[in-house]
Design brief:
123 residues; alpha+beta; 52% helix
Amino acid sequence: MLYSQEQLDEINRQRELEELENLARNDPDTLVVTLPGGQEALIGKYADDYVNGYKSAADFFQGRLNHYDGDLNELADEMNYDGVVPRPNHMDFILDLGNYGDDLLEFIKDSYHCETLSSYLGI
């Protein structure tokens, strides 16, 4: 049986949704991070199997920094440290990065819109 492109797209969408639901069940702490432009990233033990997925908060930071070709100012702007009143500036970004220390995941949660994958999927 031949499928139309629309049918193939729907089959692929359903398959991806099932995979994400399995990920949410296997790792309930997987985090969905909303990026600029409406894109999402995943952070979790098994998330690196997915496009825009990262195994750890440090991997996520490195990926975002790579996205901006190493420009820390651009990453700070993405994380709402653009200096536009009443937001903090780039120096505040550096200070906060140091203050969060080893808890980069909390820094991400405080700087981006985040939710668990199970909450995101409504399961």
